[in-house]
Amino acid sequence: TGDTTYDNGFANTAVCKSAITYIDGDAGVLQYRGYPIEQLAEKSTFLETSYLVLYGELPTQTELDEFTQKISRHMVIDERLRELFRIFPRRSHPMPVLSAAITALSTFSTDTIGFDAERVDAATHRLMAKLPTLAAYSFKNSLGSPTLWPDYSLSYIENFLRMSFGTVTEQYEFDDEVTRALDVLLILHADHEQNCSTSTVRLVGSSQANLYASVSAGVHALSGPLHGGANQAVLEMLASIRDDGISVADYMGRVKDKKDTTKLMGFGHRIYKNYDPRAAIIKKHADSILGKREGSDQLLDIALELEEAALNDDYFVERKLYPNVDFYTGLIYQAMGFPVDMFTVLFALGRLPGWIAQWREMVNDPTNKIGRPRQIYVGETERAYVPMDRR
Ligand code: CMC
Q: What is its pathway (predicted)?
């Protein structure tokens, strides 16, 4: 149709101009607002990085304190929203529960109408504040356990860990290594330019749908195994290799055969044709955390063996397939005590500032147009309606 260009999976089409995240996929470089991911992972915290991603600059101490305070203030959710969690079956996967809860949250907010800076900031703080609460409640629902109120005296990460693993009867004991590791993992996920879920957030938002609706759609896009759901799929793959007694060589053979849809989950990336810098950072953290849980080491050994085999195999070398962010995260989340179906929820917690920042960048751009891709029509040409008795 006319001058429409076919671009399967948007592999070559830039749909926006963005000043948030820079990736050089050939060199394995990732920067938020110009700051290298390695420096942020080492020196920053998730809330500070979120501020950077959202507002473009590292905050001063006063700015960070104010931001933190605004978020702490909004962590509690309305009691009626808490009731929502009771309607889902026990053992529901927490991802659809989380998305439903975000949609429901919009009905409790007055900041869904209009795009003036004050309302957008209010919605930003509310979502940043309430997502850990909703995520922890989605988790508690999957366990059939009672929920806990947030505790304002705790940090963002501690609060989430306590709401996830704490009980109403016992004091939750923090492990500083776990708290810091989760902080770092969320920093690594904070933004990744126009990936599938972020593009979804932008596309939904481009119709001027509100931030909650856009983010809720982003959660669904993230859930698929080719995107955020890969962290769950990697762990299931490692466990099945262990439990079925398949050798790494046989598994690799099955992947390369392409007779079925078996993939080496946690490998490959649309943009990185080199080691994903996030995977390199996570691998360094894996050792200190994995020792905390029995059985994790065995899965780590399989992962290391798979990585070694892939990096030395022509199939993977020719296609430039390297470990991505999801290859090692699941192992760490599991060692922290999260079940596999919470892994993608943790990805969503980390990606939230990126989704919001991209949505804000878009609504603040007066030249932005509604997203409306074209297609190449390959169906029937015009034909006459056939009555039922002649079909
Ligand atoms: N295992 C085996 N072969 C693979 C893999 C893999 N993990 N990834 C790509 N390939 C092959 C693919 O079959 C194709 O081969 P051929 O040229 O013979 O047709 C070639 O490599 C190019 O792959 P592609 O599917 O055209 O690449 P893409 O950019 O469309 O897909 C991807 C990128 C991430 C969806 C894909 O690499 C994949 O499915 N990986 C496994 C799932 C995964 O780990 N996803 C997490 C991505 S990173 C974080 C996130 O987004 O959440």
A: Carbohydrate metabolism; tricarboxylic acid cycle; isocitrate from oxaloacetate: step 1/2
